[in-house]
């Protein structure tokens, strides 16, 4: 039995469904309703506001699309061209697109009911307005930002007077992502006598608030797995096996490689990382590992171009069941999406938001398929997460190498000649887990190989550095911060595990005994001047800049010698010219990070997450003790003191401006999204 366990025939519903809907679900091959459908559809059709809480994969989409279609279909007066009957809001573009796809399947049966996708990205606001005025849809499906834009502008011509239904899909996620202001704005523009439905896998405090504010005597429909499989009270499907693996910080990549070879050969697999930058980097890196050459690897994250995102999503979705395919992604990009036939989920980094854990696992084991989900936890540091999950009723077990919850304690020696290739792989993986010591020679060998790959393309090192920095940053944002403690992060082992050649300059590394290294990390020997980009254009630019830079430095030295001006500046050693430029870049990154922290702080303050007057923890503190705030927008690396002052002033003004904007957010006069846009938030959707 599964979440889609039959819960009665469609024909048996009261009020009765239209023949059109019955035909449509019949064509889709759904002979019976799922429990959530049986519970939610009649209520939503009977003019009730509903709050529907049911596990991922339980069939919520049809639970709101069918009532919407029925309501519009049954209207006595048809909707006038510019009038719309329903709006569905989704947190991500992909999810909105997917809902549209499901709705399109009803088109042959309801040729007169039209819909339009409004998500931004691929089309401009103007284009959306243009499409609207040509097709006059009855249902709008979109993301909060674009819908807010459309609805708040008169010239868009959208008439909501007759709107009957508003649906928020993945409602908790909408709130998590800071869309509350946009949502309130949208709701304020819609008629009060409409019906509202909140659909979500988890109920949060923020949601309860929204319910109190925007819904009228809502009926709650809660479908727990216990209703479906009996007992347990867990929120994950029974066909899903969830496991954890304890490893050391630097072993994750090797472990992932083994796991994929072992488990993913005939499965569709999703691998989760903490940040967009990590997905970018590991996508590039894993694609070049010979160990994984047999796999089609895809990547999806929030900062990808929309076109590329939808292409990737489509091509991954189209991989047939039982065929190998790997998707690397972040939470933002994957929430609520129904990617069919996923059998295996690996969480290389546990999610910042504990609720996301179940959502991630829930990608596998959908609609009754057997699924496996594994999370990597750092031994000696993150074990508490296991108990934490158990308290949250997640049935998690130590991962066994036969794929079940069993643990293989004794690892066979390698010289067991009878082992098949697969068995050998299993034994090997188990062995990695056993050898968590830093002298783990297989891992050391593997990471040397990774570094070699990184050395073939400077772009990999750039991406690796960004990934490393963003990971450290995201770690400090774990909600379960008592488990995931930033100060416990082994930064040296982490850098090694990422295959970095050298460490970036960042505040987190400042206190470490510097000089290029921290404990557990030895910088690779590489001449940075000769370290090339594989991309010809990029490399040409680099070579040109390097030459210019060297010439400039030489000229400066000459001038300095002539002026006898040796007090201000140490003579510049030619060999270090490039690394100085590199350092300037890194300082810039460091500065951006600091500003970013400040912004986050302001934003959290604006959202009321930090009480007023609690300024002791102000992110400014970090600015105060930074003595190396150079003006380093200047790529040539020159250090002009006046310029530094100017830039510091600019920074200050910028921060003041951001503070003003943050106040607006707090007062509800601006959405978090606009805030991010205005301040150029580089980590807006990590
Ligand atoms: P949720 O939004 O609850 O996560 P979805 O609406 O995305 O779930 O549905 C999950 C999967 O279940 C989809 O592949 C969908 O086609 C399938 N499904 C939906 N309704 C039924 C049904 N009545 N019978 C069988 N499968 C269904
Ligand atoms: Mg859904």
TrEMBL record:
<dbReference type="GO" id="GO:0003723">
    <property type="term" value="F:RNA binding"/>
</dbReference>
<feature type="short sequence motif" description="Q motif">
    <location>
        <begin position="10"/>
        <end position="38"/>
    </location>
</feature>
<dbReference type="InterPro" id="IPR001650">
    <property type="entry name" value="Helicase_C-like"/>
</dbReference>
<dbReference type="GO" id="GO:0005524">
    <property type="term" value="F:ATP binding"/>
</dbReference>
<dbReference type="InterPro" id="IPR056330">
    <property type="entry name" value="CTT_SPB4"/>
</dbReference>
<dbReference type="InterPro" id="IPR000629">
    <property type="entry name" value="RNA-helicase_DEAD-box_CS"/>
</dbReference>
<feature type="domain" description="Helicase C-terminal">
    <location>
        <begin position="255"/>
        <end position="412"/>
    </location>
</feature>
<feature type="compositionally biased region" description="Basic and acidic residues">
    <location>
        <begin position="580"/>
        <end position="593"/>
    </location>
</feature>
<feature type="compositionally biased region" description="Acidic residues">
    <location>
        <begin position="620"/>
        <end position="635"/>
    </location>
</feature>
<dbReference type="GO" id="GO:0016787">
    <property type="term" value="F:hydrolase activity"/>
</dbReference>
<comment type="similarity">
    <text>Belongs to the DEAD box helicase family. DDX55/SPB4 subfamily.</text>
</comment>
<dbReference type="GO" id="GO:0003724">
    <property type="term" value="F:RNA helicase activity"/>
</dbReference>
<dbReference type="InterPro" id="IPR014001">
    <property type="entry name" value="Helicase_ATP-bd"/>
</dbReference>
<keyword id="KW-0378">Hydrolase</keyword>
<feature type="domain" description="DEAD-box RNA helicase Q">
    <location>
        <begin position="10"/>
        <end position="38"/>
    </location>
</feature>
<feature type="region of interest" description="Disordered">
    <location>
        <begin position="545"/>
        <end position="686"/>
    </location>
</feature>
<dbReference type="Pfam" id="PF00271">
    <property type="entry name" value="Helicase_C"/>
</dbReference>
<feature type="domain" description="Helicase ATP-binding">
    <location>
        <begin position="41"/>
        <end position="221"/>
    </location>
</feature>
<protein>
    <recommendedName>
        <fullName>ATP-dependent RNA helicase</fullName>
        <ecNumber>3.6.4.13</ecNumber>
    </recommendedName>
</protein>
<dbReference type="Pfam" id="PF00270">
    <property type="entry name" value="DEAD"/>
</dbReference>
<keyword id="KW-0347">Helicase</keyword>
<keyword id="KW-0175">Coiled coil</keyword>
<dbReference type="GO" id="GO:0006364">
    <property type="term" value="P:rRNA processing"/>
</dbReference>
<feature type="compositionally biased region" description="Basic residues">
    <location>
        <begin position="594"/>
        <end position="605"/>
    </location>
</feature>
<keyword id="KW-0547">Nucleotide-binding</keyword>
<keyword id="KW-0698">rRNA processing</keyword>
<keyword id="KW-0690">Ribosome biogenesis</keyword>
<comment type="function">
    <text>RNA helicase.</text>
</comment>
<keyword id="KW-0694">RNA-binding</keyword>
<dbReference type="Pfam" id="PF23681">
    <property type="entry name" value="CTT_SPB4"/>
</dbReference>
<dbReference type="GO" id="GO:0005730">
    <property type="term" value="C:nucleolus"/>
</dbReference>
<dbReference type="InterPro" id="IPR025313">
    <property type="entry name" value="SPB4-like_CTE"/>
</dbReference>
<feature type="compositionally biased region" description="Basic and acidic residues">
    <location>
        <begin position="545"/>
        <end position="559"/>
    </location>
</feature>
<feature type="compositionally biased region" description="Basic and acidic residues">
    <location>
        <begin position="636"/>
        <end position="645"/>
    </location>
</feature>
<keyword id="KW-0067">ATP-binding</keyword>
<dbReference type="InterPro" id="IPR014014">
    <property type="entry name" value="RNA_helicase_DEAD_Q_motif"/>
</dbReference>
<feature type="compositionally biased region" description="Acidic residues">
    <location>
        <begin position="646"/>
        <end position="656"/>
    </location>
</feature>
<dbReference type="InterPro" id="IPR011545">
    <property type="entry name" value="DEAD/DEAH_box_helicase_dom"/>
</dbReference>
<dbReference type="Pfam" id="PF13959">
    <property type="entry name" value="CTE_SPB4"/>
</dbReference>
<dbReference type="InterPro" id="IPR027417">
    <property type="entry name" value="P-loop_NTPase"/>
</dbReference>
């Amino acid at each position: 039995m599964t979440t889609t366990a039959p819960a009665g025939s469609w024909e048996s519903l009261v009020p009765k469904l239209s023949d059109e809907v019955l035909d449509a679900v019949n064509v889709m091959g759904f002979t019976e309703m799922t429990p959530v459908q049986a519970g939610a559809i009649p209520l939503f059709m009977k003019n009730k506001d509903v709050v529907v809480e049911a596990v991922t994969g339980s069939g919520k989409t049809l639970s709101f699309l069918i009532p919407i279609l029925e309501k519009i279909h049954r209207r006595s007066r048809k909707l006038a061209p510019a009038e719309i009957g329903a709006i569905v809001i989704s947190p991500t573009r992909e999810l909105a697109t997917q809902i549209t796809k499901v709705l399109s399947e009803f088109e042959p049966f309801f040729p007169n009911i039209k819909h339009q996708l409004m998500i931004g990205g691929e089309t401009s606001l103007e284009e959306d307005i243009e499409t609207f005025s040509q097709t006059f849809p009855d249902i709008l499906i979109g993301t909060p930002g674009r819908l807010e834009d459309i609805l708040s502008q008169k010239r868009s011509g959208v008439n909501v007077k007759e709107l009957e239904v508003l649906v928020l899909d993945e409602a908790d996620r909408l709130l998590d992502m800071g869309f509350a202001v946009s949502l309130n704005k949208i709701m304020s523009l819609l008629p009060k006598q409409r019906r509202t439905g909140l659909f979500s896998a988890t109920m949060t405090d923020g949601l309860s608030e929204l319910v109190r504010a925007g819904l009228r005597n809502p009926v709650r429909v809660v479908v727990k797995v216990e209703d479906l499989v009996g007992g347990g009270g867990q929120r994950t499907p029974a066909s899903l096996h969830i496991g954890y693996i304890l490893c050391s910080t630097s072993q994750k990549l090797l472990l992932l490689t083994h796991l994929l070879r072992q488990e993913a050969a005939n499965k569709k697999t999703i691998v989760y990382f903490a940040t967009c930058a990590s997905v970018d980097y590991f996508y590039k890196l894993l694609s070049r590992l010979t160990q994984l050459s047999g796999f089609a690897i895809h990547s999806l994250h929030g900062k990808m171009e929309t076109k590329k995102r939808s292409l990737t999503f489509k091509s991954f979705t189209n991989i047939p069941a039982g065929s190998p395919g790997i998707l690397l992604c972040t939470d933002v990009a994957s929430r609520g999406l129904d990617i069919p036939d996923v059998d295996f989920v690996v969480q290389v980094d546990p999610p910042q938001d504990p609720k996301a854990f179940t959502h991630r696992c829930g990608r596998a084991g959908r609609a009754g398929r057997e699924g496996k989900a594994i999370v990597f936890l750092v031994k000696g540091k993150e074990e508490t997460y296991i108990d934490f999950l158990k308290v949250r009723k997640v049935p998690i077990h130590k991962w066994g190498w036969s794929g079940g919850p069993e643990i293989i304690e004794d690892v066979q020696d390698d010289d067991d000649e009878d082992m098949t290739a697969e068995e050998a792989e299993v034994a090997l993986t188990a062995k990695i887990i056993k050898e968590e010591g830093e002298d783990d020679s297989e891992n050391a060998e593997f990471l040397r190989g990774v570094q070699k790959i990184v050395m073939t393309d400077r772009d990999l090192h750039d991406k690796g550095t960004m990934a490393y920095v963003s990971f450290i940053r995201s770690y400090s944002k774990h909600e379960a911060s008592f488990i995931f403690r930033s100060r416990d992060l082994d930064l040296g082992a982490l850098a090694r595990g990422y295959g970095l050649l050298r460490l970036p300059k960042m505040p987190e590394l400042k206190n470490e005994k510097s000089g290029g290294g921290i404990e557990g990390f030895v910088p690779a020997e590489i001449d940075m001047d000769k370290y090339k980009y594989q991309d010809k254009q990029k490399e040409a630019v680099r070579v040109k800049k390097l030459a210019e830079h060297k010439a400039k430095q030489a000229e400066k030295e000459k001038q300095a010698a002539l002026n006898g001006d040796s007090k201000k500046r140490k003579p510049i050693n030619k060999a270090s010219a490039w690394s100085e430029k590199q350092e300037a870049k890194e300082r810039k990154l460091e500065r951006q990070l600091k500003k970013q922290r400040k912004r986050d702080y302001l934003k959290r303050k604006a959202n009321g997450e930090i009480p007023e007057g609690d300024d002791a923890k102000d992110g400014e503190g970090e600015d105060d003790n930074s003595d190396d705030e150079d003006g380093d927008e200047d790529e040539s690396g020159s250090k002009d003191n006046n310029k530094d002052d100017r830039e510091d002033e600019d920074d200050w003004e910028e921060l003041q401006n951001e503070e003003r904007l943050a106040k607006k957010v707090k007062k509800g006069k601006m959405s978090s999204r606009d805030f991010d846009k205005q301040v150029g938030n580089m980590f807006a959707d990590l």
